[in-house]
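FIELD: query
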Amino acid sequence: MYYGYFNGTIAPTDQLAVGVTDLGLLRGYGLFDYFLTYNGRPFQWDWYWERFQNSATRLHLPLPISKSETYTVLMDLLERSVGAGAPADVAFRFVMTGGYAPDSISVVRPNLLILTEEIHPTPQSQYEQGIKVILDEYVREMAEVKSTDYKRLILMAQAIRSAGASDVLFQKGGEISELSRSNFFIVKGDQLITPNRNILHGITRRTVMQLAQGDFDVQERPVLLSDLYDADEAFTTSSTKRVLPITQIGELTIGDGYVGPKSTFLLERFDELVKNW
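FIELD: result
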């Protein structure tokens, strides 16, 4: 059993409910965040809170509880969930919406939902073989906000499946931004390059760039489709994907088509960090 929090109430997640006049439902106005625990500790908590706070500010949604109060809630939910049979580590999902609007448009008081969830790890075979992604000419609106609006991915789901791919890589005018739920990197020699605009600033992305210092020339800059032709490796990063190799983008094979040593090196370094978190 997993526990959640909704506007001050803590209960099993299947007993929590949001009313039908919520702006998240009526207008799609909401944001979320998602992170894991390792060894019973929220991973990079300070960074995740900073991003959640930034998203809320950009959507003009006042945070109903403080950072320290939220951390207390997280530990309570984790303890209750583990006590009810959940694994020792969980995923946390924050969802904050515009709340209940008497006129169906005005923000009066946001609704805050915090859920504990089962972690769904990426299959090991994908780390060994890499994944294929397809291209889509699209840039997310307010990309720096982790919005609940994922309709583009849902609309692209059939095209992804038909191509035998795992995800979609967004680009606009030949400039790459991000995947639908994760960040993007390429490796060229000792250069580790990642897009610097029209992206969500991922916490795993930030962690990997920090871990890579000293072994790579880390560059945040515009990444063009033309950069893919002489890239040695490519990979994507997120909470659940960690460092996941990409071996094919559309019809283009990246490098020699196999998982590269530098992606593997960074995955090992990340796994070492979380093992001792």
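FIELD: remark
DSSP finds seven helices and 16 strands in the chain.
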